[in-house]
Each structure stands twice: as C-alpha cells, then as structure tokens.
Amino acid sequence: MVNLTSTNGFLLMGFSDDHKLQILHAILFLVIYLLAVTGNILIITIYTLDHHLHSPMYYFLKYLSLLDICIISVTVPQSISNSLTDNNYISLGQCILQVFFFIALASSEVAILTVMSYDRYVAICKPLQYGTIMNPTVCRHAVAAVWVVGGLSGFMHTVVNFSIPFCGERVVHQFFCDVPQMLKLACSHEFINEIAVAAFTTLIAFICLISIVFSYIRIFTTVLRIQSAEGQTKVFSTCVPHVCVVTFFLSTAGFEFLRPPSDSPSAVDLMFSIFYTVIPPTFNPMIYSLRNEAMKAALRKLLSKEFFRGKCI
C-alpha cells in the first residue's frame, strides 16, 4: 500500500480488495478492451480502404470510432494494470492527464453525435441540397470544431478541478480519476468553481441533446410520409441505433455528474461509470456501424480480398 501522506497521488479503489476478484476484473476488462479496439479499428480500416464509403456519414463514423478507441484507452488499461499489480496508486500527473483526456474525449463524442444527427437530418429531409450543405470543407470544419470543443472542455475541467485543495485521504472510490468522485475529496465548499464549470458543460450537452432530438423529430416526421415500407425500414435501421447510443451515453453520464455527491461509496457509481466509459465504445461498432448494409458489404469485400491474397501467397 502506498503512503499517500508523502505523495501527491491518489488511490483508485475500484471493484474489490480481493486479489482473485481483481484478476477476474482485469481479465473481463481486457476482453472488453480488445473487443472495443478491434471493432473500431475495423471500421476505420473499412472506411479508409473502401472508396465507396467516402461520404459524410461514414466520414463522421470514422471519427466516432477514433474517439471510442481513445476514450476507452484513457481509463481501462490503467485499471487493468492496477488490478494485475494489486497496486491502486495513480500519480498526480497521471490523474491530471486522465481527467483532461476523458473529459475532452467525452465532450468530443457528444459533439460528433450532434454533428451526425444533423448530417442524417440533411440527408433525409433535404436530399437535393445534401451535397452542397455537407460538402468536404464543411465536414472537415465540423470535425475540427468537435476537437476544439472537447479540448476546451477538458482544459477547463482539469484546471479548475486540480486547483481545488484536497483534504483527508486521497482515496477515489472509482476505477479511474472521475471528477464527481474527486469532488468528494475537496475541502469544504472549495469545489464551487468546478460545479460552475460542470453546469456550463451540462448546458452545452443539453443544447446538443435538444439539437439531436429536434433533428430526429424532423427525420421521423419525414420518414412517416414515405410510402415505401422498405424505405422506412432502411431509414429507421440507420437512425434508431443513433438515438439509442445518444440516449444511453448522455443519460448515464448525466445521472453520475448531476446527482448530489455522497460521502459513502456506492456500487451504483461504479455501475454507471461503466455504462458511460466502457459500454458505448464497445457496442458502438456493433449496433451503430457493422449493422449497416454498406459497411457489411465493404467488410465482406475486404475479407474476401485478404482471403484471396492469402491463397495466392
């Protein structure tokens, strides 16, 4: 056990103190991590190699996959390492980087999901103007804005959070440096600035959610006017997974960040943190991209090429 009185780091008290359960947790997290990274790398590879997918929709999907790889890599490998080594210590520098990148990437994910909903709105509700509105320059600027928004959000949270004096034992009851859990370590009411920043970030996320809801109301209204049942099915199969991803991600993250802090650790905190840190990056490729007929066709084409090359060699 690390002596925290002589260091500036923290102890991450995750799932269990039992070493066998820690090993089980490490194995489960490793499997989940490999699934998430493999699935998202596959999507990026398919988009890069298949020129038929070089459209705004798949362009944004590529960046969603990149964000998913990054966001799960911020928290899960550290947790696996801590469990395998039976050492829950994380240095101050590591914690600062973890908070910055996690907040930045999570904010970027909300932003890219908002951009994707607008892309679907233009494609379905304004198909004749789609090429003009969602031209390559606009798409590049949109992705740049996503990264800028995420970076600013991460910077604000990190600066404010680590300017707060921490009192008592630096024990974080979470498997990563989670801001809501770290606020419990703050002295008195010194965390008021962090609450202000969190409120501002929440407001931006709420605006994104309203934009997404508005886009899909218009989309579903337009779809219901389509006479072809096949056309309705195709649109719903594309858009419904998007709605599910957004709802799941924002609702679980919102619950954890907005509910009043409690001094006692809770299994609910761990459960909801898994819901918004681990589950979306793992299941996004399966429910959001690989169900898409064009993506599946491109995957079959890619695999057949690789198989053919293997036979020739």
From TrEMBL:
Keywords: Cell membrane, G-protein coupled receptor, Membrane, Olfaction, Receptor, Sensory transduction, Transducer, Transmembrane, Transmembrane helix. PANTHER family: OLFACTORY RECEPTOR. GO terms for cellular component: plasma membrane. Coiled coil: none annotated. The chain crosses the membrane at residues 23-47, 59-76, 96-118, 138-156, 195-217, 238-258, 270-290. It is a multi-pass membrane protein. Belongs to the G-protein coupled receptor 1 family. It is found in: Cell membrane. GO terms for molecular function: G protein-coupled receptor activity; olfactory receptor activity. This is Olfactory receptor. It comes from the Eukaryota. It comes from Cavia porcellus.
